[in-house]
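Tokens in:
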């Protein structure tokens, strides 16, 4: 009796799961920096949203993705979603209580 066709994906799934764990670890590291950014923005009276920086990051991500062979559109979409979430997170923490 042959293995189920889906078993052919087991190794790939394990590899993707390991990569996902690395991405989550990097996300946690990035958010630790974001928390320090909030402190700096608060002390200097800066807003959560700095549009020029958003566009700078999006451009860097597109270029880096292209250099590495990843789809730039996908990378930019993921980063813009993440940046929108982070800006809302910062805004909430920068708002007077």
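Residues out:
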């Amino acid at each position: 009796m042959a293995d189920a066709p889906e078993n052919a994906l087991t190794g790939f799934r394990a590899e993707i799961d390991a990569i996902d764990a690395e991405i989550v670890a990097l996300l946690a590291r990035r958010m630790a920096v974001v928390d320090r950014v909030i402190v700096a923005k608060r002390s200097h009276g800066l807003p959560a949203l700095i549009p020029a920086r958003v566009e700078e990051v999006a451009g860097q991500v597109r270029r880096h993705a292209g250099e590495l062979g990843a789809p730039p559109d996908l990378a930019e979409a993921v980063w813009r979603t993440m940046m929108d979430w982070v800006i809302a997170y910062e805004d909430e923490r920068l708002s007077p209580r």
